[in-house]
Design the sequence.
C-alpha cells in the first residue's frame, strides 16, 4: 500500500472502525505510526470530519415531523384491505370446493365450513408474508390495537404468551372479522394465530381439544375456547405446534 | 423479525433520516415528505425484513430509492475507481468548520453534486461504515472511498467559498456626505 492508497482508506474510516485485527487496517495504522506527515494529515482529517459531523447533528428536525409520520401511519391502517388477498382467498376456497366435488353454496355472510375458513385464512398468510397493519413485539400494544378495532380476541394458550410477537392484523373473511397475530418460534420460524367468533363457523372444532391438520406447507391446529375459535399455523411442522398447546 | 415497534423505530431513526433527506432534497418540505414516505413503506413492507439489525440500513436504502424514484429521472453513476482520484489528497482545514453555522454546513453539502453528496452525508451522519454506504447506494466500496475523497475536497472548497467575501456578504458602510457643518434651514 502506498501513501496515496493509505490516505484514501484512512479518510473513509471512522474511529469505531479501527479494527486492527483486519490486516489492511493494521497495515495502514502501522504506516501512520511511521510517517509523521501521514499522521498529521490524518489527524487534521479526523478533526475536520468530527466537526462536520457535529454540525450536521445540530440541524434541527421540524417539530411536527414525528407527529406527521405517526398520523400518516394511522391513516394507512384504515385503508381497506387490498383486493389481492380477498380474491386469492375466494379463489382458493372455490377451487377446493370444486376439487372435492361438493359444490356447495357459500354465503358471504353466513357461517363458513371449517375447511373453507382454514383455506381462506391460510391464503392470507401469503406464503409466510402476511400484511400486518401493526408491527410490535409488545403483547400489550398488540392487544390494545386489536381492542381498539373491536377485533376478535380470546384467551391464548399459556405457552404462547411467552412467544415474541411480530405484529397483528384484522381481516375480513367472507364477512366475518378475523384476527391474526404472528409470533416468532424458538428456532426462528413463525407461527400465525387466527381468531374468529365461533358462530362464524358451522362446524367449529371442539373446545380445548386441538385438531391437527396439514394443508400443503402449513401445519395447523384448531380448537375452540368459549365463544372463540382459534387456528394456529406454521411451516415449522406439527411438532412445533404441539409444543405450544 | 422485529424487536421494535413502529413508534420506537420512528423515534430512533427519523432525525437522521430527515437530515439525510434534507441533504438530498435541499428543502425542508421535500425532506419531510421523503422521511414520511420512507416510514410509510416501512409500515407496509417492513414486516418482510427478517433481521431486526438491518432496520437502519433498510430505512436509509428505502429513503434513497424513494428520492431517486421521486425525481423520475434515471441516475447513471459515473464509474470511478481508485486510480481516478486526484493524485494528491489535500490537507483538511478543521478551522474552516468552526466559523460556520450548522445551516451553512448543510448548505455547503447541498451545493455538492449528488454523486458525492449522498455518500458524504451518510458518512458524516456517523451511522454507517463505508461498506454499508456502498450497500445503501448500491456502489462498490472502492467507489465509496473515491467519492468520499472527492466529496471532502469539494466540501472544503464550498466552506471556503462561504467564508470568502462576496458582493452579497460584504457589509457596506453608508456613505457620508462631506459637509462643513449641520445644515440649517
Sequence:
Amino acid at each position: 500500500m502506498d501513501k496515496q492508497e493509505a490516505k484514501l482508506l484512512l479518510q473513509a474510516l471512522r474511529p469505531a472502525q479501527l479494527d486492527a485485527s483486519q490486516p489492511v487496517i493494521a497495515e495502514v495504522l502501522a504506516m501512520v505510526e511511521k510517517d509523521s506527515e501521514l499522521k498529521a494529515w490524518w489527524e487534521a482529517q479526523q478533526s475536520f470530519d468530527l466537526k462536520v459531523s457535529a454540525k450536521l447533528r445540530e440541524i434541527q428536525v421540524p417539530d411536527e415531523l414525528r407527529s406527521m409520520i405517526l398520523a400518516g401511519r394511522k391513516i394507512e391502517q384504515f385503508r381497506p384491505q387490498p383486493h389481492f388477498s380477498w380474491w386469492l382467498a375466494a379463489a382458493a376456497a372455490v377451487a377446493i370446493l370444486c376439487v372435492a366435488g361438493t359444490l356447495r353454496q357459500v354465503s358471504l355472510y353466513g357461517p363458513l365450513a371449517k375447511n373453507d375458513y382454514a383455506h381462506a385464512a391460510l391464503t392470507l398468510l401469503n406464503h409466510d408474508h402476511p400484511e400486518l397493519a401493526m408491527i410490535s413485539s409488545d403483547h400489550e400494544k398488540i392487544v390494545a390495537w386489536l381492542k381498539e378495532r373491536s377485533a376478535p380476541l380470546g384467551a391464548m394458550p399459556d405457552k404462547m404468551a411467552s412467544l415474541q410477537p411480530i405484529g397483528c392484523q384484522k381481516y375480513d373473511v367472507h364477512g366475518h372479522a378475523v384476527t391474526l397475530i404472528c409470533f416468532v418460534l424458538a428456532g426462528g420460524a413463525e407461527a400465525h394465530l387466527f381468531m374468529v367468533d365461533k358462530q362464524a363457523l358451522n362446524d367449529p372444532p371442539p373446545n380445548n381439544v386441538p385438531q391437527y391438520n396439514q394443508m400443503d406447507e402449513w401445519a395447523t391446529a384448531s380448537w375452540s375456547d368459549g365463544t372463540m375459535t382459534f387456528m394456529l399455523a406454521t411451516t415449522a411442522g406439527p411438532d412445533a405446534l404441539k409444543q405450544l398447546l | 423479525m422485529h424487536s421494535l415497534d413502529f413508534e420506537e423505530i420512528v423515534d430512533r431513526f427519523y432525525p437522521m433520516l430527515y437530515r439525510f433527506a434534507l441533504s438530498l432534497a435541499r428543502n425542508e418540505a421535500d425532506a419531510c415528505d421523503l422521511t414520511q414516505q420512507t416510514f410509510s413503506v416501512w409500515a407496509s413492507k417492513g414486516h418482510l425484513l427478517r433481521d431486526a439489525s438491518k432496520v437502519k440500513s433498510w430505512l436509509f436504502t428505502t429513503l434513497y430509492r424513494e428520492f431517486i424514484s421521486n425525481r423520475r429521472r434515471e441516475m447513471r453513476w459515473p464509474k470511478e475507481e481508485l486510480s481516478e482520484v486526484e493524485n494528491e489528497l489535500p490537507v483538511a482545514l478543521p478551522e474552516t468548520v468552526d466559523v460556520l453555522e450548522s445551516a451553512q454546513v448543510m448548505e455547503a453539502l447541498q451545493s455538492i453534486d449528488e454523486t458525492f453528496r449522498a455518500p458524504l452525508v451518510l458518512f458524516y451522519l456517523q451511522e454507517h461504515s463505508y461498506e454499508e454506504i456502498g450497500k445503501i447506494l448500491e456502489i462498490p466500496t472502492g467507489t465509496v472511498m473515491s467519492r468520499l475523497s472527492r466529496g471532502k475536497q469539494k466540501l472544503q472548497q464550498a466552506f471556503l467559498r462561504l467564508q470568502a467575501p462576496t458582493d452579497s456578504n460584504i457589509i457596506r458602510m453608508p456613505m457620508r456626505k462631506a459637509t462643513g457643518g449641520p445644515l440649517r434651514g
Notes: Chain B has eight helices and no strands. Chain B touches chain A through 59 residues (CB under 8 Å). The two ends of chain B are 87 Å apart (CA to CA).
